[in-house]
Amino acid sequence: MKKYFAAIAVLLMLQTAIRAQTIGQFSEGDRAVFLGDSITDGGHYHSYIWLWYMTRFPYMDLSVFNAGIGGDTAADMFKRLDGDVFSKRPTVLMVTFGMNDTGYSEWLGEDAEEFGEGRYKECLENFRKIEDRLKKLDGVRIVMLGGSPYDETAEFDNTPLPGKNAVMQRISELQRQSAEENGWEFLDFNAPMLEICAKAQETDPSFTISVGDRIHPDNDGHMVMAYLYLKAQGFSGSKVADIEVDARSGKVMRQENCRISGVRTGRREISFDYLAEALPYPMDTIAHGFGTKRGQAAASSLVPFIEEMNQERLAVKGLKGSYTLYIDDVNLGSWTSAELEEGINLAGLPFTPQYRQALAVMHLNEYRWEIERNFRDFAWMQYGFFQAKGLLGVYDEQAVRALDAEKDGNFWLQVHRENWSKMMHESVREARKDEIQMLTEKIYEINKPVVRRIRLKQD
Hints:
The protein is α/β, with parallel strands linked by helices. It has helices spanning 2-19, 38-41, 45-56, 74-79, 81-85, 112-135, 164-182, 190-201, 219-232, 305-309, 337-342, 353-386, 397-406, 411-423, 426-446, and strands at 31-36, 63-68, 92-95, 141-146, 185-188, 241-246, 252-256, 258-265, 269-276, 312-317, 322-327, 330-336, 344-345, 452-458. The protein has 15 helices and 14 strands. A hairpin with a 3-residue loop joins β8 (258-265) and β9 (269-276). α3 (45-56) packs across α9 (219-232) and α6 runs parallel beside α7. The two termini are 31 Å apart.
């Protein structure tokens, strides 16, 4: 609990800095593409951001695409801009890099400082190529994202690379300057996430927001990234709904982002119809993704997402005693009249019909994410192996022979070979695209709020 309140205090201190990094919200018809390395490729932050829009703006036509590839540097990203990134026809393009650009084991050598300077200059040179291409895009909003941090300070069995994150912060500053010069937008993940880690490590020195390799944020870390992004988009204080009813008069005192009707009052109960304009944001407790250990919901102990962005407040005045709450005849527990007068957060109750509706959206989005990951593994083979062989887009015997000639000495070729052997067939790729489309359509079919009957009955 102490860690939770400490994290809130850190975020409050960071609010001024985050406000200065305000970025635009997504709009109707946007195609938001997140370009990055393995943190984007295998991560969930973009999926969690889309889940917010799926539940908060259920009628908005929005598409979000993962364009990350594990191991990529800025140089690698530049090489796949046309074939992989721009082919997704982005209207908004998020760009992040730096983890791989800054290197790894060389930081433990005697010339670490010189090595870091060399990697920064190399990254700068490659970024200028990307920058030049982005300047020529027409009608695409660019958002530079300073990458999540390399955690050098957590105390656990993994030798840290001292100085690496400082160079990553220099790259983040490079992105900020570029955004300022080109009229683009900028959001830094590095500094706020580093602050959260540092504060948590005061009570638990082994804590890291990463998955034990100091590099990849766990699911809770990705939810922190989604929170920072949504906060920068101006959603702090945005409510699912705010309901306030006077039980004595039957008068609706407040109906924010919802509509209340059919109020009925009796000596021992009050009931009314509730139609919200949004669903509560569901928080997954299961760890998803390679090597992860924590679920998305664990972010609640790190940032005040629920307090700031996931409030579905129900307040009923003029009651006495304690009352049992029913929504669509589902018994959700009892509260005192004082608690009900103050207001309870329905979004914090995982068994409300509307939360369960949102959970279905969340799980469908996760299935969508898993299939999209197959495409990202396929892209790794295309741009991480075949492009250098002059075999980009080649799916014949020549490509198979080239792959099998080197797979025994390349762990990642072994990992991705089975997926590639399926996805190399156009019919398989088309079928998998159809699956994503079907899942997305199903999400936008079931994510529409429906009328719920709320009833409070005196115990």
